[in-house]
Each structure stands twice: as structure tokens, then as C-alpha cells.
């Protein structure tokens, strides 16, 4: 995208924009007649059913509605038309070049769940059935791993809400995809899919960490992930406490143990812990597991403890003030797992009779 910017201030939770889809194919999961693939002879790529059906409907809509072509073909096509096209005289219809249409689809479309509500009822790490949709205005928004807005969908409507205060003139950002744990892997994905390198604060801090620390973080994360996957059918408190010790080992890799002088600490308060106000991506998966495991064992206090940690690891900092649950600041990720943590907290506070907090 070329970027969209706020024309006025927004508070956290404010609706920034609502937009009806330019194209959103409708189909049922069981509709096997719509199974198809799209192969592009232009660059040798392939897209599964969601992308193929969106491409088909985009071509049809553009073919029969010449007045819609200008806004659509102004979107990013990766430089295709500049290299292969020509100047279209005023008053002449813009041609529907199918390779250009496919590139614009690929760079600008959104993945949409069939029903957003089902995301809250699916087990963790489940891949739901998705559609591909196209919203022209929203396509201009650029990516950040630490976005200031979050998108949701109801039917073919796209809603963008502020996740923290946004000042007039500030660029609006959202997540194209959830960031990978490894900085090199996610930057490679951004470059391969959209041709950019993310320069958000999280990428800056991750990229500034020593390679040995990042490799050790990845190693411990994979060990924890494997341990979680090998948990027997009967989960015991002792087993969970062992995984919690592994989580603490992983937490230690997010701090800097190099001694600093008082003057250095005053000059850079984040020198000891550069993630003190940022998400800690490697901790999310094991913290989510422990939250749900303690919930399964009926330990309300432990469930609440780890649900709060889960929010913190997403970069959402909370506290309890005068019997109210308060989000002090959010510089992180707002997604379905964060909503799940809030639901668990409400359940836990309700079970303890703290109805004010639960509300």
C-alpha cells in the first residue's frame, strides 16, 4: 500500500473505517464443485481455491464494469504495468490484463474466516477454512508487526478499529500476517510476498539481538513446543510446573545480563530489558498452553496468573485498580488468542466471586 494516515485523533477502540467488499466470493466448505487451483504462467506461481475464486470474480467484475477499473488498477502490482504496459489515453477503457489483475490480487487481498465467531471456539493452532476478499480502501494500509489498528469482518464488511490512541497525521498500520518468532524468517516472508522490509520497533529490537541469543531462544522454544506436544493424556500439576520452569528459562533470554552503569541505565532505561514494553513472541505458545492446561485442571488462580502473562507476552500490559481490570498500555498484538485470554480471565474472576473484575 501507499499508506493511509489519520485525519483526526482516534481513541483506543474507535472505529476508524467500515468498508463493503469490492469482491468477496461466497461458497460453502462442502461445495466440492468449487475446488480449483489458479496457475499463473506469468511467474510460475499457484494459488489454492480461495485465491482462484477471488481472481475469477475480480476479472468478471472488472470486465463488465469499466468504471471500476481506475481505482482497482491504481493499486500496487509490483511494477508489472510499468514494465509491460502502456499509457492509456484519457477516455479510453483501461484493459483488464489478467496477469496484472492476479498480481494486484496477490499483493492486496485479505484472508477472511467464513464466520469470525468460530475463531473463538476452535482449538488453538487450528487452521480454519478461509476465503480471500478484496477491499480497495483498506488495501492501502501498510504493515507493522506492532500495528495501531486491528481488522475484523462481518459478512462482506471490513471494520478497522484503533488498538491504541492514534494522533492526527499518524500512519495507520495493521498486520498482514502474524510475525514469525525469528526475525530473519519473517523479513524473508515480507520480502517474498510483498517486497518490503519491516522497520517496526519490534523488528529493530529483534534484529539488534546477537545471533547466538536468537538461536538459543529458538532452540529453547522448540524444546518447549516439543515437550508440550508430548504431554500425556492425563496432565498433572508436576508436569505443568516442569514446563513452567522451561518457560522461565526462555524468559531469561529476553533480558540483557551485561552489567550497565547507573549513568548508562539512566540514558537507556530499556538497556537491561529491551522487551520491557514489547511483545515476547517466543513466550506466547507455552504461556497459552499453561493457561488452558491449568484451566482444564480447575486451578483458577493459576489460570488467571498465566492468562495475565499471556496478555503481557502479546505486549498488552494490564493491572487491577479499585476492582477494575485496566489495560495500562498496549504496544503489541490484538488477536483471537488475546481475546481468549480475556475470556479466561472473566471466567476466573467470576469463579472467585469477583464480579466487578469479571464484568
Task: Give your account of this protein's structure.
By secondary structure, the chain is an alpha+beta fold. Among the domains are: about 35-110, no CATH class; about 210-255 and about 265-355, Alpha Horseshoe (Serine Threonine Protein Phosphatase 5, Tetratricopeptide repeat). Helix content is about 40%, strand content about 15%. It has 13 helices and 12 strands. The protein has helices at about 50-65, 70-75, 80-85, 100-110, 185-195, 200-210, 210-230, 235-250, 260-265, 280-295, 300-315, 335-350, 355-359, and strands spanning about 5, 15-20, 40, 45, 110-115, 130-135, 140-145, 150-155, 155-160, 170-175, 315-320, 325-330. A 3-stranded mixed beta sheet has the order 1-10-7, with no helix packed on it. It has a 3-stranded antiparallel beta sheet with strand order 2-9-8, with no helix packed on it. It has a two-stranded antiparallel sheet with strand order 3-4. Strand 3 and strand 4 form a beta hairpin. Helix 7 runs antiparallel to helix 8, helix 8 packs antiparallel against helix 10 (about 280-295) and helix 10 (about 280-295) runs antiparallel to helix 11. The model has no long low-confidence stretch (mean pLDDT about 90).
Brief write-up:
This protein has helices at residues 49-64, 69-73, 80-84, 98-108, 183-194, 201-208, 211-229, 237-252, 262-267, 281-296, 300-313, 336-351, 355-358, and strands at 4-5, 15-20, 38-40, 45-47, 110-113, 130-133, 142-143, 149-154, 157-162, 171-174, 316-321, 324-330.
Question: How are the elements arranged and paired?
Answer:
Blueprint: E1 4-5, E2 15-20, E3 38-40, E4 45-47, H1 49-64, H2 69-73, H3 80-84, H4 98-108, E5 110-113, E6 130-133, E7 142-143, E8 149-154, E9 157-162, E10 171-174, H5 183-194, H6 201-208, H7 211-229, H8 237-252, H9 262-267, H10 281-296, H11 300-313, E11 316-321, E12 324-330, H12 336-351, H13 355-358
Parallel strand pairs: 7-10
Antiparallel strand pairs: 1-10, 2-9, 3-4, 5-6, 8-9, 11-12
Amino acid at each position: 500500500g501507499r499508506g493511509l494516515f489519520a485525519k483526526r485523533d482516534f481513541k483506543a477502540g474507535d472505529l476508524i473505517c467500515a468498508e463493503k467488499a469490492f469482491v468477496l466470493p461466497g461458497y460453502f466448505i462442502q461445495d466440492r464443485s468449487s475446488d480449483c487451483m489458479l496457475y499463473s504462467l506469468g511467474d510460475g506461481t499457484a494459488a489454492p481455491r480461495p485465491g482462484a475464486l477471488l481472481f475469477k470474480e475480480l476479472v468478471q467484475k472488472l470486465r463488465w464494469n469499466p468504471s471500476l477499473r481506475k481505482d482497482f488498477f491504481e493499486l500496487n502490482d509490483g511494477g508489472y504495468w510499468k514494465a509491460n504496459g502502456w499509457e492509456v489515453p484519457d477516455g479510453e477503457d483501461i484493459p483488464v490484463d489478467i496477469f496484472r489483475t492476479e498480481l494486484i490480487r496477490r499483493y492486496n487481498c485479505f484472508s477472511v474466516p467464513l464466520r469470525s465467531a468460530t475463531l473463538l471456539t476452535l482449538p488453538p493452532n487450528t487452521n480454519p477454512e478461509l476465503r480471500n476478499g478484496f477491499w480497495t480502501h483498506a488495501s492501502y494500509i501498510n504493515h507493522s508487526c506492532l500495528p495501531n489498528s486491528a481488522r475484523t469482518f462481518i459478512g462482506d464488511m471490513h471494520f478497522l478499529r484503533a488498538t491504541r490512541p492514534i494522533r492526527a497525521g499518524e500512519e495507520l498500520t495493521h498486520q498482514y500476517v502474524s510475525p514469525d518468532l525469528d526475525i530473519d524468517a519473517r523479513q524473508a516472508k515480507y520480502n517474498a510476498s510483498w517486497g518490503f522490509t519491516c522497520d517496526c520497533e519490534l523488528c529493530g529490537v529483534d534484529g539488534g539481538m546477537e545471533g547466538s541469543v536468537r538461536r538459543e531462544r529458538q532452540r529453547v522454544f522448540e524444546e518447549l513446543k516439543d515437550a508440550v506436544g508430548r504431554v500425556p493424556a492425563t496432565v498433572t500439576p508436576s508436569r505443568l510446573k516442569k514446563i513452567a520452569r522451561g518457560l522461565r528459562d526462555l524468559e531469561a533470554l529476553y533480558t540483557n545480563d551485561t552489567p550497565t552503569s547507573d549513568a548508562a541505565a539512566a540514558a537507556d532505561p530499556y538497556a537491561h530489558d529491551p522487551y520491557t514494553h514489547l511483545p515476547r513472541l517466543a513466550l506466547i505458545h507455552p504461556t497459552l498452553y499453561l493457561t488452558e492446561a491449568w484451566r482444564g485442571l480447575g486451578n483458577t488462580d493459576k489460570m488467571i496468573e498465566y492468562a495475565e502473562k499471556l496478555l503481557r507476552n502479546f505486549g498488552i500490559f494490564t493491572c487491577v485498580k479499585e476492582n477494575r481490570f485496566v489495560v495500562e498500555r498496549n504496544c503489541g498484538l490484538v488477536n483471537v488468542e488475546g481475546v481468549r485470554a480475556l475470556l479466561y480471565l472473566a471466567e476466573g474472576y467470576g469463579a472467585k466471586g469477583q464480579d466487578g473484575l469479571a464484568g
